């Protein structure tokens, strides 16, 4: 079959022949409709993601919308390495049929980033029954913006969206979020802006899609005098676009009732994620979730790999 193929950790994928995926008992082969080029896809292909196994060559891609032999559109993923989803044919362990009204390429672009925020929101709601105030760091990226939408849809009392892109922040403000701009400032200014936003009500839940210096600014804000010291705070680390390391002050851990955890492959089971897929797909069908995308034929995988901007690259068959 034809596929996107990565030969070495630092190489961009090329359009080439690759062996058909191994069959699984009871699983029919699927045909690609669209596969999103997410941050995790690049990380796994380069060997920099914690889930990389270091084996090459490989086909990149972690999820996709595909078509069954009887013509149904399904969302699927978790192929067995070295096979990924950016190939003509897929063999995967699960499939969930798309609801009517869902744009298949928007699903391909947005399900992976959408699930990253959805899972800790659902876990928090199941644990305590209500979301209260939710702070989203990195809210202007696709994952963060979908997390803001998810928090609002799941009944959060107040959603604080912090990010760099002023246009994206304005759109989130229009949905009802309180916005905190983090562009053109230093971490001390970020901490002050976050502290002012948190003074009204401390966030029981923080979703951090960026980590690095932004996390350090958030730690400073959460440890400041304006935040209720008796509040329980769950700080969930999800992405690291601003840096893989952040200094966590000992004083914050001792002076606040704060729990710092992570959410991702390994900390959330595959069964839990698959169970939530129908509800997330329904949000794409009813318009709650939106994921702008740019489609690239599989034969132009090099252009897709170099894609930048507000839309997500989605690889489609030729």
What does this structure look like?
The model has no long low-confidence stretch (mean pLDDT 94). This protein has 2 domains: 2-97 and 288-316, Quinone Oxidoreductase, Chain A, domain 1 (Alpha-Beta Complex); 113-262, Rossmann fold. Strands 3, 4, 5, 6, 7, 14 and 15 form a 7-stranded mixed sheet that branches. Strands 10-9-8-11-12-13 form a 6-stranded parallel sheet, with helices on both faces. A two-stranded antiparallel ribbon has the order 1-2. The protein contains 9 helices and 15 strands. Strand 14 (293-297), helix 9 (301-305) and strand 15 form a beta-alpha-beta unit. The protein is of the alpha/beta class and 318 residues long. GO terms for molecular function: oxidoreductase activity.
Secondary-structure blueprint of this entry?
Layout: E1 2-5, E2 14-17, E3 30-36, H1 39-46, E4 63-67, E5 73-77, E6 89-90, E7 95-97, H2 104-128, E8 133-137, H3 142-153, E9 158-163, H4 166-175, E10 178-181, H5 187-198, E11 205-208, H6 212-222, E12 232-237, H7 250-255, E13 257-262, H8 270-285, E14 293-297, H9 301-305, E15 312-316
Parallel strand pairs: 8-9, 8-11, 9-10, 11-12, 12-13, 14-15
Antiparallel strand pairs: 1-2, 3-4, 3-6, 3-15, 4-5, 5-7
Q: Nutshell version of this structure?
A:
The protein is of the alpha/beta class.
Strand content: 15-25%
CATH homologous group name of the largest domain: NAD(P)-binding Rossmann-like Domain
Order of helices and strands: EEEHEEEEHEHEHEHEHEHEHEHE
- CATH level-1 class of the largest domain: Alpha Beta
The span between the termini is 12 Å
The CATH architecture term of the largest domain is 3-Layer(aba) Sandwich
Largest sheet: 7 strands, mixed
Taken together, the total number of domains comes to: 2
State the helical fraction: 25-40%
Alpha-carbon Rg, integer: 20 Å
Shape category:
globular
Poorly predicted regions are none
Instruction: Please give the number of β-strands.
Output: 15
Q: What is the CATH topology classification name of the largest domain?
A: Rossmann fold
Assign the structural class, choosing from mainly alpha, mainly beta, alpha/beta, alpha+beta, or little secondary structure.
alpha/beta
Protein name: NADPH:quinone reductase-like Zn-dependent oxidoreductase
Organism: Pseudonocardia hierapolitana
GO molecular function, one term: oxidoreductase activity
């Amino acid at each position: 079959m034809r596929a996107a193929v990565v030969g070495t950790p630092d190489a961009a994928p090329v359009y080439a022949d690759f062996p058909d995926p191994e069959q699984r008992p009871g699983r029919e082969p699927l045909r690609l409709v669209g596969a999103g080029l997410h941050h995790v896809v690049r990380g796994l292909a380069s060997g920099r993601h914690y889930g990389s196994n270091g084996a090459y060559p490989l086909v990149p891609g972690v999820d996709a919308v595909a078509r069954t032999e009887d013509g149904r559109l399904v969302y699927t993923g978790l192929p067995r390495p070295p096979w990924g989803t950016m190939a003509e044919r897929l063999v995967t362990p699960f499939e969930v049929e798309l609801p009517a009204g869902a744009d298949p390429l928007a699903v391909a672009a947005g399900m992976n980033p959408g699930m990253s925020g959805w899972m800790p929101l659902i876990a928090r709601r199941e644990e305590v029954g209500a979301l209260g105030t939710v702070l989203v760091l990195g809210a202007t990226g696709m994952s963060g913006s979908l997390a803001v939408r998810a928090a609002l849809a799941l009944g959060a009392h107040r959603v604080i969206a912090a990010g760099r892109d002023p246009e994206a922040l304005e759109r989130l403000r229009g949905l009802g979020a309180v916005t905190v701009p983090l562009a053109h400032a230093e971490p001390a200014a970020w901490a002050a802006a976050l502290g002012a936003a948190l003074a009204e009500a401390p966030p029981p839940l923080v979703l951090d899609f960026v980590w690095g210096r932004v996390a350090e600014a958030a730690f400073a804000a959460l440890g400041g005098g304006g935040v209720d010291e008796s509040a329980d705070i769950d700080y969930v680390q999800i992405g690291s676009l601003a840096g893989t390391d952040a200094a966590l002050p000992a004083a914050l851990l001792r002076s606040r009732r704060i729990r710092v955890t992570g959410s991702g492959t390994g900390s959330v089971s595959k069964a839990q994620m698959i169970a939530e897929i129908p509800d997330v797909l329904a949000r794409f069908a009813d318009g709650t979730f939106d994921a702008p995308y740019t489609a690239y034929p599989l034969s132009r995988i090099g252009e897709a790999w170099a894609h930048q901007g507000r839309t997500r690259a989605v690889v489609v068959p030729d």
